[in-house]
Amino acid sequence: MSGRPPSHAVQPNLQPLPRIRNIIAVGSGKGGVGKSTTAVNLALALAAEGARVGVLDADVYGPSVPTMLGLSGRPDSPDGKSIEPMRAHGVEAMSIGLLIEQDTPMIWRGPMATSALTQLLTETLWGGEEGLDYLLVDLPPGTGDIQLTLAQKIPVAGAVIVTTPQDVATLDARKALKMFEKVQVPVLGLIENMAVHVCSNCGHAEHIFGSGGGERMAAQYGVPLLGALPLEIGIREQGDAGIPVVAAQPASTAAEAYRQAAHRLVEELARRPRAATPISASLL
Fold first, then answer.
1. Does 57 fall in a domain?
2. What residue numbers bound the domain in which 203 lies?
3. What percent of the chain is helix, strand and coil (3-state, nearest 5)?
4. CA gap 190, 168 in Å, rounded
5. Residue at 283 is within a domain
6. Cβ contacts of residue 230 below 8 Å, gap of 6+?
7. What is the 3-class SS of 99-163, one letter each residue?
8. What tens digit of pLDDT does each residue of 81-117 get?
9. DSSP tally for the chain: helices H, then strands E
10. pLDDT (tens digit per residue) in 136-174
11. Is residue 172 part of a domain?
């Protein structure tokens, strides 16, 4: 991942953006499965391997990326139109949460939310002169307006579905997977979060949310299982503290699980066709 990766094919009638080689959507069928935590730690794992990485928080109603990355303050605007992304732990980030007060609710109808997402993507100066290798888009849960805008207007190289093992989560994850298929966004794979908890006192491993749900779903739909992530208190604590576990405890079992999932993600993306039209030569 230390070399600059190529741009990969996106939806029909769209082309990769000049500053971003590959946009990866991180989605889920329901909330509470750890999608944002997964997206942020995957981004840090990719950056630790030498990739130029950004995270776009597409959940305009409940932005959590600023908290997880420990970001505060407002981003700069060099010309009053474009926005400089903020940086933390080696990745760039942009979120509506960086542009409003922390306790301000976004009481917006769908078109306003989707317009905000499009502006955050296109008006942010991602990657400087070299551009980004990967932009991970942390989607809100479900299959609503934001997801539809992403599918129709934003060139996406692939999607990752995050689920937990229990049936109620995989049922909703199936809907997210089928949605991406319908809008011709390739699903690069599934990530099963909170797969197993190992007691810190006795070492006993317990599948609190059941076992094998992600693996069964992957087999049923013919997509790879990119990884199974542990249920550990440190992941939650480090996310709340603004130093994700991949950065705070790089030698931990949890950090290694995220790194392995990131490697599998890059491997699956590399199997996809390359984009027909290369990005600007000035960014290569």
1. yes
2. 20-271
3. 35, 20, 45
4. 16
5. no
6. 194, 195, 196, 197, 198, 253, 254, 257
7. CCCCCCCCCCCHHHHHHHHHHHHHCECCCCCCCEEEEEEECCCCCCHHHHHHHHHCCCCEEEEEE
8. 899 999 999 999 999 989 877 776 666 676 787 888 8
9. 9, 10
10. 999 988 777 888 888 888 999 999 999 988 777 788 888
11. yes
Q: What's this model's pTM, rounded to 2 decimal places? A: 0.91
Q: Residue 221 is encoded by which pair of tokens?
A: 């739909």
* DSSP conformation letters of 47-97: HHTT--EEEEE--SSS--HHHHHT--S----SSSSSBPPEEETTEEEEEGG
Contact criterion met (CB below 8 Å) for 103 and 115: no
Domain CATH code at residue 162: 3.40.50.300
Please check whether residue 91 lies inside any domain of the structure. yes
Name the domain count of the chain.
1
Q: β-strand 205-206 against 197-198: which pairing, if any?
A: antiparallel
